[in-house]
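Researcher: Quick one. two chains, 908 residues in total.
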Amino acid sequence: MNSHGTGERPQRSAQYAHLCATLLHANGLPFGVPSTDSPYAGTGTYTPHVIARNLTGSPQSITPTLEYPGASGPTQSTLAPLTLAPYATMDIPLGTALAVITTPVPHAAIGIQYSGAPGSVIADVASIEQKGELAVSSYVENTGNNFAGSGAHAWHLDAQTESILYLSNLGNQECPIGMRVQANGVAYFVTDVRLKAHETRAISLRQLRDAQKTDFQGHKIPADATDGSVLWARLKNLPVTGTLDVVSDDQLVTPEASGSCCCPANYQGLSLAPGDPDVLVGDPLQYSATLATMDCNGNYYYATWTNDVTWNSSDKTVANFQTSGNPSLLSALTPGTTNVIANGSCWEQYMCCAGVCNPAACVPVEGGSTVNVVAVSITGGNNYVLWGSDPNILIFNEQQAAGTPSGGQYAWSASNSKVSFNSTGAALVTLTAQSPSASLLDTQLIVNYTYNNFGATPATRYITVRIYKFLQQSGQVQVVLLNGPSQYGYNATAYYNIYTNPGGQSVPSDFSNVPIFETVTINSVTPSGYSVTLHQGAGATYADSEIHDNLSVVTTSPLPSNLDINASQDISVSGIYVRSNTLNYMATGPVITNNGPFN
Amino acid sequence: MGWGDRGRPYLQVFEEKSMLASYSSPRQVANPGVRAPGQLNRLDETKHSSWVFPHRILFLLFAAIIALGLRPRSVAGSSQAPTLNAVLRYRALFVRGIPLTEALRTIGADVEKGYISFGVEVYVTAGKEPVVDLDVPPGASVDDVRRQLSRQLPQYEFDIVSPHLVSVCPKVAMRDPKDPLNIRVLRFDANGEAAGAILTWPERFIPELRQRTGSQGGADNKHIDLYVGPVAVGTAVKLSLRNVTVRQILCAVSEATEDTGPKDVPLGWEYSFDPQMMFKPGAVQSWRLLMTFPHNWAEQVREGPDKVP
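Model:
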C-alpha cells in the first residue's frame, strides 16, 4: 500500500498500466450547499472542479458523472462531455451540476470517463467554496486498478475536528467491506459495511465511537479515544476506494487517501454463532456467520456473512433450517445431535509478487457447528413400585431414563418420601418403597438431565407405591392321593393370586421369587390320639406371580375316613400379612375357608 | 420357583479327611475358640452378663470338641458378631404380647445394616408360644433387644452361633437327653439339598430323628406329617458332618445360607413342641423356616452378599 495516512498523492507506476481502465474516480467531495448531516454543513457553497491532463497527442472526450446519495440509494447523474486537447490540462468546473442536484447532499463522488487508452488521462479533483476560503481535494483512483481496495488512515476527534471515512464502490455489484478501528490498544471491528454498486458511504468516526456498540468480539471503541487509525479492505474483487477527511472548523480539510494495491484480504475462515449450542426441542436458534480475512500485513478483517452462505443441517430430523423467510433460523425438532454447515461462494485468493497480484485459487468458504438438542425421557420401568423386602423385587422397581445426547448427568428425585433411590445420578435406578401410596399415582418421579451444563426439560412419571394387600384363590385345589404302600394321604396344592393396594391391582406376571411366609397353628385333630408333626414351608412366588401353597398329609397307614385336622393359617407376602384361612385337612383333601382380608 | 440358582456351585464344601470330619468355615475368624458346627458360643461375661455360660460346661465342651478333633473356631465376642451391634431402624418399636418368634422376626426385619438369623427351639403350651413385649427406642441395637428379651424370658438362652446366627432355646433343653435336637447323629451328609427342605422337614434327611418322631405314633402308627406352605427351597447345601447333634446340623445348614447369592435369603429355623405332651398320643410338634432378613435386605445385597456386615 502506498501513502496510507500520509496524504501523499500516489503516482501510478507504468507496470500497473495494464490494470487501468478509462474511468477515474474521486469521492468525499462537498457539493453545493451540503446537507445538515454533512461534515461540511454550514461551511459554504461548493463547486467541484476536475483538473484533467491529456497525456496523449490526440484529443480526448471527457465525461464527468456525479454520484451522490439519493432518496432511493446511490444516484448517478452524467454531465455533458467535454473535449480535452492533446497534452492539454483543463480545469472543468462542474457548476452546471448544481442545477441537476436540487436537494442538498452530504457529499458526492465524481467519475471521469475519458475516451483514450487506459492511463492516458490523469486528474485531480477538488471542491472549492464559492468565497474561495475553503477547498476540499480528493484522491483520484483509476477504477481499473483492481487491487485498489484497502486503506489505513489516521483519525482525530476533538471539539472542533471530525474524521469522516469515505468509501466508494466503483463496481457494478454490492461489495462487503472489512473494517477495523484501532484506538488506545483496542481493535474494534465493523462487520456490517456493504457498499452498493457505485455507492459512496461516509462513516463518521465520532458516531462510531460515541455509539459505544460492542462488536462481535465484545469490544468497544474507547469512549475517550481522540486519536486512532482505521483500516479497511474490500472483501470482494471489486474496485473500492477510500478517503479519510479530517475536517476542522475554519481549517483546511486534510484528505487521507486510500492505499491502492497489492495487499488483498485473503480468506481465513468462517465462524458460526452460536458455536456449538445446546438447545431444547422446539427452540428456535438464530445463526449468524462471520467471515475472517487477513491482509498481507497480518491485519484481520471480519464481515457478517450470514446472508452470503447457504445453511444446512446434517440430520434434518434433529434440527433443520427454514426453507423460506429466515434461512439462518434453525428449529430444533427431536433429541439428538446434528452438524450445521454453512457454505458460501468460493473466495478468490491472490498471490502478490513484486507488486503484482494475481488470482491464485478459489478457496471454499465453509463453517460448521454442532448442535445438541438435549432431552431426557423415562424409557423403562413401571408406573408403580412394590413394597417389600424381597431380594428380587427390586428388578421390578427399576426406572430407566435416557438422556440425549449421551454422556450427560442424571439427577433423580421424587415428590415425596414414599420411595428412595439406590442412586440418584444414574440412568438406571432402583426404587425402594418406604411407605405405600394413599392413592393411585400419588408420587411423581422427576429426572433432570444436564449435558454440557445445559439442562434438559425434566422428565416425569407418576407412580403408585403398591403394597400387597390380599390373596384371591385361583382355580381349584389340586389333590394327588397317596395310596401306599409306604405313604398314605395326599399332596394338595392351592393357588393364589396376589392383589395390591391402593387400587386393588393384581401383581402382574413375572413377579417370581416374592417371599411367602406362613404361620400355621393346629387347633384340633380328629380322631384323637394322633400325633402330628407340622412342617411349615416358606418359599416364594412362581413365574406366574402366583403362590403355590402346598397342603399335604402324609402317614404310613391309611387315613381314617373321619380325619379332620383343623388349623389356622396366616399368609404373608414379602413380610405383609395378606390372608387368613381356616384349613381342614380331611381324608380326601383339604378344605380352605377364607377369613379375609377380602379387598 | 425358589431362591437361588440350582446350577451354581455349592457355597460350602467340606472335605472329609478322616473318620472324623474337619470343619472349616468359609470365614476366617481372628479370635480362636473351640466350637463344633452350630455349636453355641458364650460371650464375654463382663460384656454380656445375661449370656453367661457356666464355666464347667464350657470346659466340657472344650474337652468334647478337642476329643472330636474339630478344628478350633469361634465367633464369640461382639466384634465377631457384628449384627448384635447393629442398630435397628430409626423407628421406635412398641409391641405388647406377641409370640416370641414373631418378636424375633420383627427385630430381624428392622436391622438397618447387616442381618440376623435365628435357630429357635420353643416350648409351646396349648399350641401357644411364650409372648413378649417389645419396647425398642430409636437407635437401639440388636443386643439391646436381646437383653430385653432375656429379662422377659429368663428361662431361655440366647447364644451366638455365628456372626449372623443366634440360637434361642429353653435353658433346660440343652441338657435334656429326650430333646429331639440333642439326638446325636453319627453321620450327616447333604449333597446339594435345599436348605429350606432340610430345615422344614429334617426327618427326611436325618434318620435318627425320623426314628424318634415316628415312634410318637406308637404301635398303631397314629402319626401324621402335615405340610403347609410353599415348597421350601433355598441355598443348595453341601455338608458332611460327623457325630453332631440335630441342633448342630440345623445350625450348620442355617450358616450355609449366609453370604449366599443375591437371589437367596438367609434362613433360620424353628422347632416348637409342648414338652408336657412329648411322646404322648395327640402330641403336636412343628418345624418351620424362620425368615428374619431385614426390610432393606435387597438394598444391602445389591453390593454383593459378602459385603453385608
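Chain A touches chain B through 56 residues (CB under 8 Å).
Researcher: Thanks, that's what I needed.
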